[in-house]
Amino acid sequence: MKNENLYNYILGIADNSLILGQRLGELTGHGPSLETDIACTNMSLDLFGQVRSYYQYAAKLKGGDATEDTIAFLRKERDYVNVLLVEQPDRDFAYTMARQFLFDVYHLLFLQELQKSHDITLTAIAKKSIKEVSYHQRFSTDWIKRLGDGTTVSHDKMQEAIDSLWTYTDELFHQTAADKAMVAEGIGVDVTALKVKYYSLVNAVLEEATLKIPESKWFQKGGKKGIHTEHFGYILSNMQYMQLAYPNMEW
Amino acid sequence: MTTEQNIDEILIPILEHVSDPEIPVLSIMDMGVVRSAVIKNKIVYVEITPTYSGCPAMDVIGDDIKTVLKVAGYDSRIELILAPAWTTDWITPRGRKALEDYGIAAPLGAEADKDVLLNGKRIVKCTNCGSQNTRLVSQFGSTACKAQFQCDDCQEPFDYFKCLK
Ligand SMILES: [Zn+2]
């Protein structure tokens, strides 16, 4: 394939949104209240919309029989390169919002840089997505503060969620070979340069929410190389079921 | 890249027959999602842009455009474009009025929008009684483009179309 680095680079962006969108979509009809249920599924829909644009572009690069659907549904576990953070399960609402917040802050910083890419398709997707993701970040930030600075129970649950998800944050700033190649060409975003800003934004919200900033320096990684946590196989079996049971089905 | 629309005048009355499937009182022209429509060799080329990336209405809108153009005697090709990104500024004054009449509060400017969604300011007008004594219930409403509000005077719940710039 020509442009193999660009193809892999696009998957690196889009897989995060696909898997997070799938996780949020699992809450359809199961949110803690009607409003939060609808909010989570709306964010899921935004992410899937963004994913379609990325995968359509990737399919064009790949050529042959590739479509947005084959890329989304017909890959094996090791071929998905999303970060571990987004595949973590919905243990409770604090967990879901902490996962969302820790990703949203990164996502917005990332898109702000991707807008400056030399690739006009990526620039267009970034400019479109950034408007949506700003709303996601407002929503999740609001819940970090409400639960963190809420009752003793909500505070403790949010602290526990932040503490256990913290270990997945560092991976957001790791670079793959495709990332490095795309940064060199002025197409990709240098994520290592976002790290300091990311933690300062996150820490400021945690402080306002009366939450302790985790001190652990031990971080998990692997997703970007296709090595996932035990949750991932379950996500795929759920997500790919229709395509595997009824190959080539369309809506 | 331009934010100007390029629509052949004879196509306007035809395209005005297509409405947003989620807001049936609003034509896609008043919504501002049709960015260009030109006739070349008897084929109409239409470019539409989504309000939100995941807007499930776009496929239906594309099919509906094909149908009305077919009835008018044209074959057509529909293309979904992302740039420049859609903004609520492209909703026409007639579109804003249609929204309000339908029970959806039209989008405020960017600063005022922030004030109501983040700072709890009460300025969104109730679509039922006109009072501004309204409060945000949830940042996401029945679709991603709307937020849920409630009027504290008449108690009516309603949607507010969020500002997108
Ligand atoms: Zn009222």
From TrEMBL, chain A:
Query: Which is a GO BP term held by this UniProt record?
Result: phenylacetate catabolic process
Which Pfam families does the UniProt entry name for this protein?
PaaA_PaaC
Q: Which SUPFAM superfamilies match?
A: Ferritin-like
Query: Record's superkingdom?
Result: Bacteria
What is the protein's name according to its record? Phenylacetate-CoA oxygenase subunit PaaC
Q: Which InterPro entries match?
A: Aromatic_CoA_ox/epox, Ferritin-like, Ferritin-like_SF, PaaA_PaaC, PaaC
Gene Ontology CC entries for this record: cytosol
TrEMBL record, chain B:
Give start-end of the signal peptide: none
Name recorded for this polypeptide: Phenylacetate-CoA oxygenase subunit PaaJ
Gene3D superfamilies, per this entry?
Fe-S cluster assembly (FSCA)
The organism is Bizionia saleffrena
Q: Which PANTHER family match?
A: 1,2-PHENYLACETYL-COA EPOXIDASE, SUBUNIT D-RELATED, FE-S PROTEIN MATURATION AUXILIARY FACTOR YITW
InterPro entries, per database record? Fe-S_Maturation_MIP18, FSCA_dom_sf, MIP18-like, PaaD-like, Zn_ribbon_PaaD
SUPFAM superfamilies, alphabetically? Fe-S cluster assembly (FSCA) domain-like
Please report the stretch or stretches of sequence annotated as the MIP18 family-like domain.
15-71
Q: Where does the PaaD zinc beta ribbon domain lie?
A: 113-162
The protein's matches in Pfam families, at most eight in alphabetical order, are given as: FeS_assembly_P, Zn_ribbon_PaaD
